[in-house]
Amino acid sequence: MRGTAERDGIRLAYEVNGDGDRTIVLLPAWMVTNRRMWAAQVTALSGRFRVVTYDARGSGGSDRPLDPAAYAPKELVADLLTVLETTGTDEAVLVGNSLGGLIALLAAARFPDRVSGLALIGPTVDVIGTTPSALQLAMARFDTEVEPGDGWARYNRHAWVRDYRGFVEWFVDTALGPEGTAEQRAAGVAAGLDNTPEVLAATVTSRAEQPVHLRAVRCPALVMNGDRDAICPPEWGRALADRLGARHVGLPGAGHCPHVTRAATTAALIAEFAAERGLP
């Protein structure tokens, strides 16, 4: 079933697959991609669970405002709650990759009665806060003119104006890591080029540090990281799992998006977690 949820004039495209008693919501990640990144997980999980996916504002079939304030984390959390309400989902296991992991955590802390479990894949959550990552450094200089270059020099507003395709291709390669296939890379690049540098820049400008009150998170959690994640350092995931009292699963050789490159393994971990006693 496909439909549209709406909040404050912003339309959000969603999809529901399967009719199991338990609901899993696969959250959108950063707006350089869309809900199709979860295609393999939907196929693997919907035979056993009710699976909800949706496009974040600024991506896919959802509306794409240009005001950076529209992409503040609190707005993305509110969008998630709107999707839950619209799809008749009282509570769910939230699965989030990257930015989606942060939004899932924020939702669990703010609306604990709606979240029965968290499965976080390479979440953009730094509870260590000592040495800035390459991503954090790039975000800090996002609006500053930089010399043309490869690598993280491409994560920059001015670089996107010069060569947006080059950024998308680099970012997809970096996120998938060395085990990404040509087909997976092509799909990732197509999703990135479906957006515009103007919309994507608005989503970066709004990404100020968002404190997560981990003590307010009461549900069980699972944290997964590829040990070759070049976007969110693997030590972030280990530290977060420790703070949450959660199980941590390291995936040797995997990058930032094992739900894409290791779909079967990741789906099995999510299904096992969602089926554990104590989750609805």
Short note summarizing the structure:
The protein has 280 residues and is of the alpha/beta class.
Q: Secondary-structure map with pairings?
A:
Elements: E1 2-7, E2 10-17, E3 23-26, H1 39-45, E4 50-54, H2 73-86, E5 92-97, H3 99-110, E6 115-121, H4 134-140, H5 157-176, H6 182-193, H7 197-205, E7 221-226, H8 234-244, E8 247-251, H9 258-261, H10 263-274
Parallel strand pairs: 3-4, 3-5, 5-6, 6-7, 7-8
Antiparallel strand pairs: 1-2, 2-4
Helix pairs in contact: 1-10, 2-3, 5-6
Describe this structure in words.
- By secondary structure, this protein is an alpha/beta fold.
- Helix content is 39%, strand content 17%.
- It has a domain at 2-128 and 209-274: Alpha/Beta hydrolase fold, catalytic domain (Rossmann fold, 3-Layer(aba) Sandwich).
- The protein has 10 helices and 8 strands.
- Strands 1-2-4-3-5-6-7-8 form an 8-stranded mixed sheet, sandwiched between helices.
- Strand 1 (2-7) and strand 2 (10-17) form a beta hairpin.
- Helix 1 (39-45) crosses helix 10 (263-274), helix 2 (73-86) packs across helix 3 (99-110) and helix 5 (157-176) packs antiparallel against helix 6.
- The radius of gyration is 17 Å and the shape is globular.
- Pfam families: Abhydrolase_1.
- GO terms for molecular function: hydrolase activity.
- This is 3-oxoadipate enol-lactonase/pimeloyl-[acyl-carrier protein] methyl ester esterase.
